[in-house]
Fold this sequence. Notes:
The chain contains four helices and six strands. The chain is of the alpha+beta class. The chain has a single domain, classed as Nuclear Transport Factor 2, Chain: A (Roll). α1 packs antiparallel against α2. The termini are far apart.
Amino acid sequence: MTHPNADLLRRGYEAFAAGDIQTVLSVFADDIAWHVSGESKISGEFHGHQEVVGFFSRLMELTDGRFRLEVHDILANDANAAVLVTAFAERDNRALEMREVHTWRMADGKATEFRIFAEDSAITDRFFS
């Protein structure tokens, strides 16, 4: 049996893969805090559904819709979760394949905060700059 927060996040990642942003947003608290470190065109602090959707739009725009995540594992408890993924993207005849850890804060059955940790943030920064 998996933790309910693991099931919630799995549903969100599956919806993202299917392009179902409404279901993705249903996993997030209205005031979600979204943190993407680095020095690239996708780096920044995003707050709330509208800004996170803006982030998703920018990500897809930069990759001509050729961004996807492969989920390897989801670890969760009542307050925190970690999702182990490989991110794949294509841009300007270049490809990116990067292992990442996504960390989540959880409260009241919703994701309230997201942070991304890439295997090599310098490569990610160059790819998205």
